[in-house]
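User: Please predict structures.

Assistant: First:
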Amino acid sequence: MAKTPAVLLDPATFDGPLTDDPGAPDAQVTIKGRNVEVPDHFATRIHTKLAKIEKISPAITRFDVVLLHEKNPRLAKASQRIEITLKGKPGVARAEAAEDTFYAALESAVAKLERQMRKARTRRKISHSGHRRPQSVAEATAELAPEAAPAEVMDEYADGVDDQLPGQIVRRKEHDGTPMSVDEALEKMELVGHDFYLFRDAESGHATVVYRRHAFDYGLITLTD
């Protein structure tokens, strides 16, 4: 497949305040620009941000970062998009953001990923504490409320989209069927930032969907024989 030509961008789109903590994560990092060249100083900034995320969960083994410039002038306020995917023992987490500069997009994407990681970690603590009733996100993350912000719903299946055609199935994706508990499914749902998660219930063996209800409670849908 031919490589998409890089777009010549204003260098200021990558600029931001200098950091005095140029750390780097231990995990493997891959940074790609789909139609943009990523300056070295911005790659360094990405590494610094990822190092902070790694402190939340040192079990992360890999980060994949993708930068994309939207050419449509009507989308100028969200023309610079960044997608971050992390993999490791906690599972897979993804976040993306689109802003008018790559600097702002990186800040937004990292903030979302941090919130998802902290929610998942809180969920894990609740599970290990022996609570019998699944605790809602609002209850579980009450201490995070001051830093909370409206979260953008991430589309885990975006890579499977070929065309936006009305009335047709445009997304297909195979999903891991490893049996797990409801608590584990809730943790994975928080990591990917979705409002639902499909899994195979380890207790019943049935395909089950856990989903977020209004008022931040959860629901379960289970297929039976």
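Second:
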Amino acid sequence: MTDYAIYDVFTGTALAGNPLAVVFDADAIDEARMQAIANEFNLAETVFVLTPDNPAHTARVRIFTPARELPFAGHPTVGVAIALAERRLGDQVPDSGVDMVTMLEEQIGQVRCAVRISRKGPGFAEFDLPRLSRRIEVEIEPADIGAALGLDPQDIGFENHHVSLWSAGIPFVMVPVHDMAAAAKAACVAAEWDRVAPMGDGMLADAYVYCRGGVNHTAAFHARMFAPGIGIGEDPATGSAAAALSGAIHHFDGMLDGNHALVIEQGVEMGRPSLIHMHVDCAEGRVRHVRIGGEAVKIAEGRLLV
């Protein structure tokens, strides 16, 4: 028997954001059973917590969608960092809150997370990108991509942003659209996406539709993510996509040297609004460091009997 918890991630409000299942003490669960459990939960991702290879680290984690394992993902990283901190502290959180640093071993490599736990509100975690976003040069036909997403050619592109492929470990076709009305039109046709989507890092790329602005006044960008190839029709918050977006923003917006703090909203069209916090540090014309963060709130806990 193994304890588990459900967290809503990239939100401080229960029943919003992106739900995540966290299975603790999972060393005795083999890979096939992990995949079956993730399929049973049927959430965008389920993360399994194991004993770290390095005793100085907090935990080794494995991340599964209902269809397959991922080397890295943002909302599981934020959610499991907060879940482990809350499980460790229990009722011993002072009124002033606690700041902690956790080191997670993921398939992509070590991921450092800064975590703040408070009695008065949801936890917040922010991780350093283990791999910076890079552009993958492939031929992409914007009209085909648009058709697979139910978008007209005139919906696609704003300013000098155009369709391109980026990856910070998970590949995404970045699809800029004129405004939120165009973003609201997007509806991925899975069979058509499988036909036109490019490959990146050995995987079929997912779709990330974005525009400037947002419903929330703090948002710099509004986004939607579709990943039918891994069993996710639409995702309410995608940290790995925000990570990939950092490279596209730097490239197309010509970010100046310095620190850029941005908020990306997602999940609005699904009724699960999410806010992803991103810091991009630039120097000598290049992105040097990116941090992705957000809140998470526990909404359920229980015990696996299998």
